[in-house]
């Protein structure tokens, strides 16, 4: 059995956002960092970094945050953005404040615009992020759209054709599936992630999206009990479901 990776205690906790290495060293020397029931006193001590670290280590009696790689599933509410740079409140403000100082940093897996709610993945795992968003992975995403005008009945064939060209682009969209759920509502399943793609697809069909919610990525469905703004750590079963 391979040995777990080891890290200096002060560097590990600094990378988890608990402060600078000097600040973390102060926590350690004060006996506030406990591993397997025993206070640690040496900031330079090497400790094993495993996924179950929060079960073994605590700081001031509180379980330590999970180490990288970390992936979260969030029910993104309306009115928040998915970027560190866009104006307005961001999804990162819904997470513990110190997580903004984690290294490697957390990023959203693709984006939902300010006026779109629903299933959002946030991760510090670069290979996982790129696997989900890569067109070669064909990870389907389902959006539930409310529309300004009634559907014409021709949208399904148009989106499934693989010939629809969005304004300003040179390549047609990959085939997508439309399931009409009401006179002015539909589910749209796409395998790409172009800029404002769903809104632009309905605009190309002469309609306007007035409400948009994503509830599925691959085989992972937004949990019913996860309230807007709520989040939890992605489980192994969740991870497998995305690529099922």
Word description of this protein:
The protein is of the alpha+beta class. The protein has 3 domains: 6-63, RNA-binding S4 domain (Structural Genomics Hypothetical 15.5 Kd Protein In mrcA-pckA Intergenic Region, Chain A); 68-137 and 227-244, Alpha-Beta Plaits, CATH 3.30.70; 140-217, Alpha-L RNA-binding motif (Alpha-Beta Plaits). It is 20% helix and 27% strand. It is built from 7 helices and 15 strands. Strand 5 and strand 6 (62-63) form a beta hairpin. Helix 1 crosses helix 2 (21-29). The relative contact order is 0.14. The model has no long low-confidence stretch (mean pLDDT 96).
Number of extended strands: 15
Q: What is the oligomer described by this structure?
A: single chain
Annotated CATH homologous superfamily of the largest domain: Pseudouridine synthase I, catalytic domain, N-terminal subdomain
Radius of gyration computed on alpha carbons: 22 Å
Strand-helix topology:
Blueprint lengths: L5 E3 H7 L5 H9 L3 E3 L2 E2 L6 E3 L4 H4 E3 L2 E2 L7 E6 L30 E2 L7 E8 L2 H8 L7 E7 L7 H6 L16 E6 L2 E6 L6 H8 L4 E9 L2 E2 L9 E3 L2 H7 L2
Parallel strand pairs: 9-13
Antiparallel strand pairs: 1-4, 2-3, 2-5, 5-6, 7-9, 7-15, 8-9, 10-12, 10-13, 11-12, 13-14
């Amino acid at each position: 059995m391979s040995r777990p990776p080891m890290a200096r205690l002060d560097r590990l906790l600094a990378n988890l956002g608990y402060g600078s290495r000097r600040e973390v060293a102060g926590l350690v020397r004060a006996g506030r960092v406990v591993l397997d029931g025993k206070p640690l006193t040496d900031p330079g001590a090497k400790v094993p970094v495993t996924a179950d670290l929060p079960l073994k280590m605590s700081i001031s009696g509180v379980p330590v945050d999970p180490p990288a790689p970390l992936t979260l599933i969030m029910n993104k509410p309306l009115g928040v953005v998915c970027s560190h740079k866009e104006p307005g409140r961001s999804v990162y403000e819904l997470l513990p404040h110190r997580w903004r100082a984690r290294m490697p940093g957390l990023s959203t897996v693709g984006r939902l615009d300010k006026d779109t709610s629903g299933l959002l993945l946030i991760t510090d795992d670069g290979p996982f992020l790129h696997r989900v968003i890569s067109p070669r992975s064909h990870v389907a995403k389902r959006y539930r759209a409310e529309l300004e005008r009634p559907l014409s009945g021709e949208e399904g064939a148009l989106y499934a054709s693989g010939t629809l060209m969005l304004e300003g682009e040179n390549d047609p969209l990959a085939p997508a599936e439309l399931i009409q759920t009401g006179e002015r509502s539909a589910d749209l399943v796409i395998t790409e992630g172009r800029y404002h793609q769903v809104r632009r697809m309905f605009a190309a069909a002469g309609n306007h999206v007035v409400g948009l919610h994503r509830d599925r990525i691959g085989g992972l469905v937004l949990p019913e009990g996860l309230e807007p703004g709520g989040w939890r750590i992605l489980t192994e079963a969740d991870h497998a479901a995305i690529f099922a």
